[in-house]
Amino acid sequence: MKKLRITLLLTILLSLFLFISCTSDNEPIDQAIPTVDPVTPAETIGLPIITTKASFTDELTSSPKLGGTITSDGGSPITASGIVWSTTTNPTIANSKTNDNTSVGNFTSTMTGLSPKTTYYVRAYATNSKGTSYGIERTITTIDSTIDNALALMTANIDNVQYNVMRPYLYAFTGNDVNVQNDGGAIGDPRFLWIQGDTSDNLDTLIEINLHIPNDKWTPGTYTLYEREDLSTTAECQAHLILNDGNFSMITSGTLTVTEFNLTTKRIKGTFSFTYSKSETPGDFKVTNGTFNYALDDSYFD
Q1: 227: enclosing H helix or E strand
Q2: Whole domain around residue 188: which residue ranges?
Q3: Which residue intervals define the domain Fibronectin type-III in the entry (predicted)?
Q4: Per the domain annotation, does 30 fall within a domain?
Q5: Is 198 within the bounds of a domain?
Q6: 267-278 and 249-262: which strand pairing?
Q7: pLDDT tens for residues 40-51?
Q8: pLDDT for 178-191, tens place per residue?
Q9: DSSP codes, 67-114
Q10: Across the chain, how many H-helices and E-strands are there?
Q11: In a domain, 59, yes or no
Q12: Does residue 35 lie in a domain region?
């Protein structure tokens, strides 16, 4: 009986030893895992790192442009990059694309073969031997090329930057070239022809020029251009410039020339230039080589 008790005691001690040993050799399943610096998926698998530019250029044309920036090739040479687009979200290289760059850095690509008045989803891409990376998605709605045989067009050099395609805000949707202002004014008060040109439809990045021509100057000639102040009784050519750099502008001098005002073809054409000041930036600034070619499509001329 004494031997049986000793054997039972040894069995209990052995079991307790094995339990403690196993517990010390295996970490608990909820043990904290040491943290490491986060890495992006692209860095993990060696894909290129790319961003899409914030806005389009030549947005109001049939061939808008969008750029990207490749900041890293991921450790392998870039074999293709450009932009991809589709009428559905998250376009890939299986959709329409450009392929015009194989270098790290900035690039710009041109969209082609687009349908009018259609919204496209666009993003930059870059490919190396590991695969393809994409930048953030942008959207653009193409112009309606059937609006008129001759679309409204303003051009201008603004502070030494040339803009060759400027049109009224949301022109692709409205199709309105010009508006007549103060049409309900008293007899004898001037009516103004409002001509607007925007560099894009993006309110965050656009630059906008507004020209206001009184009806006694709806004839070929050169006229002094003033900052917009009174569009009800002051029969002078007036203008206003909207910038995208946080400054308010004030036109200090300028001229506007009407080269054609034709009620048969319903067309107005001309040129303009002016100097202006900025609210937050000292100095004189210039808009040069301004041109406009617009349809007289307001109902006032019917």
Answers
A1: strand 221-227
A2: 153-301
A3: 44-149
A4: no
A5: yes
A6: antiparallel
A7: 454 558 999 999
A8: 999 999 999 999 99
A9: EEEEEE-TTS---EEEEEEESSSS--TTSEE-----SSEEEEEE--SP
A10: 3, 18
A11: yes
A12: no
